[in-house]
Automatic annotation (TrEMBL):
<feature type="compositionally biased region" description="Gly residues">
    <location>
        <begin position="37"/>
        <end position="46"/>
    </location>
</feature>
<feature type="region of interest" description="Disordered">
    <location>
        <begin position="1"/>
        <end position="47"/>
    </location>
</feature>
<keyword id="KW-0175">Coiled coil</keyword>
<feature type="compositionally biased region" description="Low complexity">
    <location>
        <begin position="9"/>
        <end position="22"/>
    </location>
</feature>
<feature type="coiled-coil region">
    <location>
        <begin position="74"/>
        <end position="101"/>
    </location>
</feature>
<protein>
    <submittedName>
        <fullName>Uncharacterized protein</fullName>
    </submittedName>
</protein>
Length: 186
């Protein structure tokens, strides 16, 4: 069977009629049904027609996606800042726990001891740049109280003058330095 490349005029016209029914013409001179009354090209739509177009479901979905994307980015940044703040709070809590644990360990490691003083040395006028000091002789060893107040000076002197007991308290890790002094009047 051979195919004839030339068709009759009648065959061509019939084929054109079928094509017009299936595919819209792009010719600006032909009057056809354009969607939303945009005859003669794309720029012929009115504002009302564009609003109607925006109300159609595919366009509504696109607008919602665009709004969600922009809104989602703001939420994402806010969420990231919240996460960073939570991480900082957690780090601060961990640091505070670490510091508290170290202080507790130091306090537990400190072992305090005390003893009654048999005598004292009062440095009334220390050398320039040196702190005021009172030395108490406890268990045959001198232990120093640095920078005592004038009131403590007077109380220690009176306690020894009247025969009251002077008790010194120190940390066993640094036994030569007194932490506090207590006077017992018996």
């Amino acid at each position: 069977m051979s195919i004839n490349p030339q068709m009759s005029q009648q065959g061509q016209q019939g084929q054109q009629g079928q094509q017009q029914g299936q595919f819209p013409s792009t010719s600006p001179y032909q009057q056809q049904n354009q969607p939303f009354g945009m005859g003669g090209g794309m720029g012929g739509g009115t504002l009302e027609q564009l609003q109607q177009l925006g109300q159609q479901q595919p366009f509504q979905q696109l607008l919602q996606q665009l709004a969600q994307t922009q809104f989602g980015q703001g939420q994402q940044q806010e969420q990231q800042s919240r996460q960073a703040e939570q991480q900082m709070q957690q780090q601060l809590q961990q640091l505070a726990q670490t510091v508290v644990q170290q202080v507790i360990q130091q306090v537990q490691a400190q072992s305090l001891a005390s003893g009654a003083a048999g005598g004292f040395i009062d440095v009334v006028h220390p050398l320039q740049g040196q702190p005021q000091q009172i030395f108490l002789r406890i268990d045959g060893q001198f232990r120093v109280l640095n920078n005592p107040t004038p009131q403590i000076h007077q109380q220690i002197q009176e306690a020894f003058a009247f025969g009251h007991q002077v008790i010194g308290v120190w940390d066993t890790q640094s036994p030569n330095v007194l932490r506090s002094v207590r006077i017992q009047r018996i």
